[in-house]
Design brief:
With about 1250 residues, the chain is an alpha+beta fold. About 30% of the residues lie in helices and about 25% in strands. It has 30 helices and 51 strands. The strands form 12 sheets. Strands 26-27-28-29-30-31-32 form a 7-stranded antiparallel beta sheet, with no helix packed on it. It has a 5-stranded parallel beta sheet with strand order 2-3-4-1-5, with helices on both faces. Strand 26 and strand 27 (about 905-910) form a beta hairpin. Helix 16 crosses helix 19 (about 450-470), helix 22 crosses helix 25 (about 580-605) and helix 24 packs antiparallel against helix 25 (about 580-605). The longest helix is centred in the N-terminal third of the chain and has 49 residues, at about 1-50. About 40% of the residues are buried. InterPro entries: GPIID_WHD, NPHP3-like_N, P-loop_NTPase. This is NACHT domain-containing protein.
């Protein structure tokens, strides 16, 4: 029995174990399936992000297939025998005059129609299918097409290459890091499609090196609008030699300038003659008509000798000959062979003109107009819809829809169908049909395209399409549906496209076509515009744009600006007698521009919000349209905290011309430090971010009068993984070059143990004419012409290190550079021995304005006690063996801050940032005199800009500093420098944040300047007689300080304004539609500096603390009342804290009130650099509102605390303290954060053992 029982138990146990294992395996399978689903969804999201707007993501394969289909198998073999291919792949010695990295990029150029695209397809097939030099996944390629907006820009190229790289790494199982980087960029962009060049290029450039050796083939580079940044990027990639690049194009001047120094190959007629002969023979023999013995040999002979090196000419002639029915017809064509591509195009047009009946000829004209003028290739259904709209506009009605074949064949061999879209057979067709210089032969002139008239036809058709299709919303706006439950289904978008195939194209491109119309047609355009948009279609059009392409906000904004400028620029002759149409045009553009600027982000995610937003302000000038058609009954006019949170405007009221218009696609934040240049001659602003990643440096441009801007110019030559801080910059005297010098170091250098500090010089060439028109399809306005990085630590962060010299030269740490040729005369190869010695440390250096000398300040750290610690300045000749000591000083708190243009005056300032100072010192080299330039008060300054003016008779100093914790800009003007300097004028401006010297531009008149302050606002500074700030906002001196807060229940909002001796509290109920605003005037104790007062409101807004005063706030029927008392002993503590910090530091005390209104703390985090001068401070008090009393709490905290912060528990009498502890004074050795809980009733402190990472994760979760 026992044995049987044991056997049964063992069997049951085994069965239980088996079931457990099975359950675990089942769960693992479920988890894996779930993970696969998540990964699949994420992969679809990535694929959509890298796909173009109107194509499948694999469209690059279709382009290769199209090119491959046109290639004869016996052609293009000659390319592999060329010596240049041997240089590219290292099979031949280096070409004379080229360097190794220049031989990793091969530029193949030829005349139009020579078969460059066919050659590209042969190269791709060779290196993916035949040659084993590269793995097939490591050959990346792209075919540019100028007639297609999705294939004619650098972003489209890199987007496709990155997708190919993504698929390649997936096949090899090395995709993890690339996928993570793409996901981060996708999430950061907030867009459904990658539209920003810089981030996707940075990812591609970083990861393509992981699959080396790799080959990139780029066809038709001349058809890429912004090829400059691509060329820069490919050059930088090819430096290693492991990544090879082959680019084909026409031989155009701008490409020759950029690629002429690289390996190049020109396709000549001799190169491809044998290919053409083989192609002709194969096609003739394969044609039932042309292979007839009576014409075969003659056709082959004539085409093999008349091609002039153009495959396209042969291709088109064969198509013409195949249409011949008789021998005499063939002989006639061969007897009068057209010369070149223009000749054959004339022949085709003449044949179409003579053979087509009137109706077909009209159809041919319309098809050519749309195919040539459309922004992108149109689907056949889109074109059929466009043709029907044309008939309606002309007052006609189509009895039946055009057949696909009718459209495809009506234009002969000029038009072809590729992947369902109608396209010209070659770019030269478009160039011929739209050329204003071409012969206007009467036999076919009606088939030529007038761009102005074509744009009119397309504009009217697009407006008609919008009017017909945008009559209702794509979502259900039934009032019974909760607003948060509204969804836009994909099926609704598809249904709209079925009903109106042209709707998406028309909605997003009508503005481009309108701005290309001739002004004489404006009456017709104006009529159609008003019929379309003086209706509900205005709002349904916005919804349609955001539904079709959610990431089109920037594109639409640019289009609205262009339309507004185009309309404003037309003279009265172009308008009807009444100006009403013109005014409506302008007001409508401004209203829609305001909507997209204010609510673009919201609309891109929820397009139907256009029907709910309160837009009264935007439509203030066309109120009639809004009141009649906007269905104002459903629109929110108030913000309800406890209900749906309506989108709110966040725009500033600053005029566009008085504010730098930040590019909204990226950057470190609107208030990030920048460098700023004003080109006064051309009325342009140039600026760029001061802190950059060298792999994506960029500069911006803006019209100083109108505020118009262009997309930023981007540099891709920089080394990935390095950061840079702009230290000096300048605009060349002729305004054609911007030079920027960056101090660079490796990212996370504190972990690497070394900054590896270097200096990078970038020179941008600016177009002679910067055009602000055509921003929807603008070309780059600047490009990098020089980039050089050198190792030097001589120049400090903001040391002037850019000097412009005569003859088109400039001087930077990289050397003396010639703009035109890019030649460089190095400096520091020969200077170190004369500049740096073993017993000194270089503190800073400056170039003289004549480019002859380098001024250096250094500290002696070796030698006798009399010499050790002494600072001195010396002048070193840059290109001669000469140097001299100018002056020395024992005070190590002084440093050489600047040198006058002639080198006569040296400016000495405080050596440490954030240190209080009372004066500057000016040393006259000629007289050896030292002058003191006193300030009006002791300044705790951070940065300064110095400018000598009026032949060095005056010195203007801009000092960015802090006074009692408030950022200020102090400007001093000293005159009579040569004899006895006199402070002529002084001005001070309070700011929300510090202004870097790089953000200040002194104008050429030397009596005014421009300064970039908060939110990139441009402020004028004048110092003709007295320093003044004409653009400074008016400040209510009665209440210079403000704080605001929403109560913890989200119902009330309070605003406190306080100043010298008084305060005002405003409170309102934000949950009500029109809640009343209650105001309460309060009296404060006298204070020298209101900014020094710590102020706070309790979470329930029932207690207010300002300095040492406590106010109990009661809200009744008649408004607000208060009862106040003072915290005992706090005034003395606050004064002691303030006195101890001044004048070297200022650490504002922060005030916190507990949720129960029973405790108040005052806290200052302190400085780890100088805890004696800026200690961590915390004062805690218990307060009683009933008895109006207080008592200080004795918090027994550990010594040597720094970085202290505190927060009250939301419901219990507990205080959470976070702090670090260290006996060291250097930041790197401060201990990790520690956390303690203080029980306020018993004053018990309990440390919590959390690591730094746990604290961080806990904060994230909370």
């Amino acid at each position: 029995m026992i044995e049987n029982r044991d056997r049964v138990e063992r069997a049951a146990l085994a069965e239980h174990i088996g079931q457990s294992k099975t359950a675990r395996l089942d769960q693992q399978l479920v988890n894996l399936k779930l993970l696969d689903v998540q990964n699949s969804a994420r992969e679809k999201e990535i694929t959509a992000w890298l796909a173009p707007a109107v194509y499948d993501v694999n469209y690059y394969r279709n382009d290769l297939a199209n090119a491959r289909a046109l290639r004869h198998e016996k052609t293009c073999k000659w390319i592999f025998e060329r010596e240049e291919m041997g240089h590219l792949f290292g099979d031949a010695p280096s070409a004379p005059g080229t360097r190794a990295h220049e031989e990793s990029l091969l530029w193949i150029y030829a005349q139009p129609g020579a078969g460059k695209t066919i050659l590209s397809s042969r190269l791709i097939d060779h290196y993916t299918l035949e040659d084993d030099s590269f793995q097939s996944e490591h050959v990346l390629y792209f075919f540019c097409k100028s007639t297609d907006a999705d294939k004619s820009n650098a972003t489209a190229v890199v987007r496709s290459l990155l997708y190919q790289l993504y698929k390649s790494t997936k096949a090899q199982g090395t995709q993890m890091t690339l996928t993570a980087d793409i996901e981060r960029a996708l999430d950061k962009s907030g867009k459904r499609q990658a539209v920003d060049f810089a981030p996707i290029w940075a990812i591609f450039a970083d990861h393509v090196k992981c699959i080396s050796p790799a080959l990139i083939i780029l066809d038709a580079l001349d058809e890429c609008q912004d090829s400059e940044q691509l060329i820069q990027g490919f050059k930088s990639l090819s430096f290693s030699g492991l990544i090879k690049v082959i680019a084909t194009s026409r031989k155009e001047a701008h490409l020759f300038t950029q690629l002429g120094s690289n390996l190049s190959l020109e396709i000549t007629a001799e190169d491809i003659n044998s290919d053409i002969v083989a192609y002709v023979e194969a096609k003739v023999l394969g044609s039932p008509r042309l292979s007839h013995s009576m014409v075969r040999d003659r056709v082959i002979a004539r085409l093999s000798t008349g091609h002039s090196g153009m495959f396209l000419w042969v291709y088109l002639m064969l198509k013409e000959l195949k249409s011949c029915f008789s021998m005499s017809h063939v002989q006639g064509v061969l007897a009068s062979l057209p010369t070149g591509l223009d000749g054959i195009y004339k022949s085709i047009l003449q044949r179409l003109r003579g053979n087509l009946p009137a109706a077909s000829l009209d159809l041919c004209c319309k098809v050519l107009t749309w195919v040539i003028s459309a922004i992108r290739p149109l689907q056949v259904d889109e074109l059929k819809h466009a043709l029907s709209l044309h008939h309606e506009i002309e007052g006609d009605t189509l009895l039946f829809e055009y057949a696909d074949k009718d459209i495809e064949l009506v234009c002969g061999s000029l038009i072809t169908v590729r992947q369902g879209t109608l396209q010209v057979i070659h770019l030269t067709v478009k160039e011929f049909l739209t050329s204003v210089h071409g012969p206007q032969d009467s036999t076919y002139s009606d088939l030529l395209i007038d761009p102005g008239k074509a744009s009119l036809h397309l504009t009217l058709a697009c407006l008609k399409c919008i009017k017909d299709s945008c009559k209702e919303s794509m979502v259900d706006l039934d009032p019974g549906i909760a607003r948060l439950d509204i969804k836009l289904d994909d099926e609704a978008i598809i249904q709209r496209q079925r009903q109106a195939p042209l709707a998406e194209y028309a909605s997003l491109t009508w503005m481009m076509h309108l701005t290309e119309c001739d002004g004489v047609h404006m009456i017709a355009v104006s009529k159609a515009f008003k019929e379309t948009f003086e209706s509900p279609s205005t709002f349904y059009w916005v919804e349609a744009c955001m539904a079709f392409q959610p990431d089109s906000v920037l594109r639409l904004l640019a289009g609205l600006e262009e339309v507004f400028e185009y309309v404003s620029g037309l003279g009265p002759d172009h308008w009807p007698e009444s100006e009403a149409s013109r005014v409506f045009f302008a007001d409508w553009c401004n209203a829609l521009r305001n909507i997209f600027e204010e609510y673009g982000s919201t609309l891109s995610h929820r397009p139907w919000e256009i029907h709910f937003l309160d837009l009264q302000t935007s439509f203030s000038r066309i109120r009639r349209l809004y009141e009649r058609f906007a269905d104002t009954a459903r629109r929110d006019t108030t913000l309800r905290i406890n209900d749906y949170d309506s989108p709110r405007s966040c725009r500033t009221e600053t005029q566009a011309c008085n504010q730098l218009q930040q590019d909204v696609r990226g950057g470190r934040g609107f208030n990030a430090s920048i460098f700023f240049i004003h080109d006064e001659r051309r009325g342009l602003y140039f600026w760029g971010e001061s802190h950059i990643d060298l792999a994506s440096a960029r500069i911006f441009v803006q019209n100083a009068v109108t505020g118009q801007r262009l997309p930023p110019a981007v540099n891709l030559v920089g080394e990935a993984g390095r950061e840079g801080y702009s230290s000096s910059y300048g605009l060349s005297p002729n305004g054609e070059y911007v030079v920027v010098v960056y101090n660079t170091h490796t990212k996370n250098w504190w972990n690497a143990g070394s900054m590896n500090r270097q200096s990078l010089t970038l020179i941008w060439q600016i177009n002679k004419e910067v055009r602000f028109k055509r921003r929807m399809r603008s070309e780059p306005w600047a490009r990098i012409v020089f980039s050089h990085q050198c190792e030097t630590e001589l120049f400090e962060t903001t040391a002037p290190s850019v000097v412009f010299l005569d003859g088109g030269y400039c001087l930077t740490p990289s050397g003396e550079i010639h703009f035109a040729s890019g030649s460089r005369r190095p400096l520091f190869d020969r200077l170190p021995n004369r500049v740096v010695s073993a017993d000194t440390t270089v503190l800073g250096s400056f170039f003289s304005q004549n480019g002859k000398y380098l001024f250096i300040s250094e500290m002696v750290h070796e030698g006798s006690s009399d010499v050790r610690g002494m600072c001195r300045a010396k002048r070193v000749a840059l290109f001669a063996e000469a140097s001299e000591s100018l002056c020395s000083w024992k005070d190590s708190s002084r440093r050489l801050a600047d040198v006058s243009p002639s080198g006569r005056f040296l400016v000495l300032s405080a050596a440490e940032l954030g240190v209080g100072d009372e004066a500057l010192y000016l040393y006259d080299v000629e007289t050896s005199k030292n002058f003191q330039l006193p300030f009006v008060e002791r300044l705790n300054y951070w940065e300064a800009k110095y400018r000598f003016v009026k032949d060095e008779m005056e010195l203007i100093v801009f000092i960015s500093c802090e006074i009692h914790g408030i950022s200020t800009m102090n400007i001093f003007v000293w005159s009579v420098l040569q004899s006895d300097p006199l402070l002529r004028s002084h001005g001070q401006l309070k700011l929300d944040h510090r202004i870097s010297p790089l953000q200040i531009h002194v104008n050429n008149d030397e009596s005014s300047a421009l300064m970039i302050s908060e939110n990139r606002v441009i402020q004028r500074v004048e110092f003709r007689t007295q320093v003044s700030f004409p653009d400074a906002p008016s400040v209510n001196d009665d209440y210079p300080c403000t704080i605001s807060q929403i109560s913890k229940d989200g119902v009330r909002w309070a605003l406190l304004k306080y100043g010298q001796g008084k305060a005002q509290l405003q409170m309102t109920d934000v949950s009500a539609a029109k809640g009343p605003i209650h105001r309460l005037e309060l009296e404060l104790s006298p204070c020298d500096e209101p900014h020094s007062l710590a102020a706070s409101l309790s979470p329930d807004l029932r207690v207010l603390v300002v300095g040492a005063q406590v106010f109990g706030i009661t809200e009744g029927v008649h408004g607000l009342t208060s009862a106040s008392f003072k915290i005992e002993g706090l005034l003395e503590l606050l004064e002691r804290h303030r006195t101890r910090l001044a004048p070297r530091h200022w650490c504002q005390l922060r005030c916190l009130i507990s949720p129960g209104n029973s405790h108040v703390i005052f806290i200052s985090p302190g400085s780890p650099h100088d805890r004696e001068a800026a200690p961590s401070t915390i004062y805690a008090f218990r307060i009683d509102l009933v008895s109006r009393s207080s008592a200080r709490l004795d918090l027994r905290l550990p010594k040597d605390l720094t970085y202290i912060s505190a927060d009250f528990h939301p419901s219990q009498n507990l205080l959470l303290l976070t702090y670090s502890s260290s006996s060291f004074k250097v930041l790197e050795e401060v201990s990790p954060p520690q956390v303690s809980i203080v029980e306020l009733e018993g004053l018990k402190m309990k440390p919590i053992g959390l690591s730094e990472g746990e604290i961080f994760m806990k904060c994230l979760k909370e």
